[in-house]
Automatic annotation (TrEMBL):
Residues 10-109 form the HTH hxlR-type domain. Gene3D superfamilies: Winged helix-like DNA-binding domain superfamily/Winged helix DNA-binding domain (1.10.10.10). PANTHER family: HTH-TYPE TRANSCRIPTIONAL REGULATOR YODB, TRANSCRIPTIONAL REGULATOR, MARR FAMILY. GO terms for molecular function: DNA binding. InterPro entries: HTH_HxlR, WH-like_DNA-bd_sf, WH_DNA-bd_sf. The keyword Hydrolase does not apply. This is HTH hxlR-type domain-containing protein. Keywords: DNA-binding, Transcription, Transcription regulation. It comes from the Bacteria. It comes from Mucilaginibacter galii.
Amino acid sequence: MKEILHRSDCPIGYSLDYLGDKWVLLILRDLIFTNKSSYGDFLASDEKIATNILADRLKLLEANGFIKSTVSAEKKNKFIYSLTEKGIDLIPVIIELMIWGSKYDSHDVKDVVKKLEKDKEGTIKQLRDKLSARINSDVPSGE
């Protein structure tokens, strides 16, 4: 697992120490905006993350409290990943990156960006509520 070394006391530097990796941001994106929640789901993303990098970034996110894993109820050798409150608190940050990217990207604007343009605060609340409900319904592994 990639070790986090804090280079300064700067809040932006601190944030980048955790979130300055494109794979971390894409995993968080998938957890926030899609129903992806397993290793296989993340592997199937368009960006084609390598298996060793995916495993490393999932460990990093979990070790630092952004996500948690639980054993799948259907398949005991499968882990299901979900955001923690710390991860959910990143929704506004990820949304701002999405809005900025859509402004300068030549591709069609995604439905979620159109929704954000109409009601950013309401959309953020809706995402937070949905993801918080998942946290409250999860049973920790081993219990």
